[in-house]
Amino acid sequence: MKYLVINGSPRKKNTYGVITQAKTNLEGEAEEIHLLKENIPLCVGCYKCINESERKCPHFDKVGPIIEKIRECDGLIIGSPVYAMNVSALLKNFLDHTAYLYHRPEFFTKKALVVVTTAGAGHKKVANYIDETLRHWGVNKVYRISFACGGKDALETSKIDKVSKKFGDDLKSGKMHSPKFTDIVFFNVWKALALSDDPIEADKNYWFATDLVNHDFSPDVKLGFVKKVFSKLMGFIMKKVMK
Questions:
Q1: How far apart are CA 224 and CA 213, in angstroms?
Q2: Separation of alpha carbons 69 and 166, rounded Å
Q3: What does each of the 243 residues of the chain score in pLDDT, given as a tens digit?
Q4: How many CB atoms lie within 10 A of CB 195?
Q5: CATH 3.40.50.360 domain residues, the chain
Q6: At what angle do helices 123-137 and 181-195 cross, to 10 degrees?
Q7: How far is it, in rounded angstroms, from Cα 82 to Cα 124?
Q8: Among residues 230, 210, 133, 217, which one has the least CA distance to residue 177?
Q9: Looking at the domain covering 2-173, what would its CATH class be?
Q10: How far, in Å, CA of 94 to CA of 170, rounded?
């Protein structure tokens, strides 16, 4: 197994400590990316990644290689402390640069582990936010470890071992999990936009090049009968709405 760690903390303390312990329960190699050292400029909101191509992003030379490493890894680990009830500025800036992945999800066979720590509150909320973002990227399954350091959770280190082992075992199994209904809804929203009379050209090119326009969800992920019918229904509704 090949793991990629994206550390959104500017320090190597609580969040990194949890990541380090989690890694001891995983078999394989782990490459670490510390966003503080990447010096990614602030997203300027130019929309070029969405409207034209992610390669048109003025900071593609910084962001592109990280995305490529995500493509190459088997398992993704993303960590962040809670700053002002949200992810760190380092991680938020990186995620802002990946906004196009909401329109053009591609990581349908990836699984991820999210690590969030806080000195106070907000860890569950922040873990939910990262989880939601990854699912918009297409990520198949997201595991979460969130800690309120200094509180009762600080003593529950067995949680790190339990969740990280489950994450590692799931990766080794090769099993693809059925998507949530909300994931199917958004899949059909973006597919319908690509099929609309006035699509974003970059979106249209991606959805047709990958042949996702002809599927109810990623062909790498099997849908049960109910979800397949639900997807077809959502696809029909979204096409009508986009018209």
A1: 19
A2: 23
A3: 999 999 999 999 999 999 999 999 999 999 999 999 999 999 999 999 999 999 999 999 999 999 999 999 999 999 999 999 999 999 999 999 999 999 999 999 999 999 999 998 999 999 999 999 999 999 999 999 998 886 555 546 888 999 999 999 999 999 999 999 999 999 999 999 999 999 999 999 999 999 999 999 999 999 999 999 999 999 999 988 887
A4: 18
A5: 2-173
A6: 40
A7: 10
A8: 217
A9: alpha beta
A10: 27
What one-letter code names the amino acid at 231?
S
Global confidence as pTM? 0.94
63: its two tokens: 């962001």
**Tokens of residue 113, six digits:** 């582990």
The residues, ordered by sequence, that sit 6+ positions from 130 with a Cβ below 8 Å of its Cβ are 78, 80, 87, 91, 114, 116, 142
As a dihedral over the C-alpha atoms of residue 181, residue 7, residue 19, residue 153, rounded to 10 degrees, the angle is -70
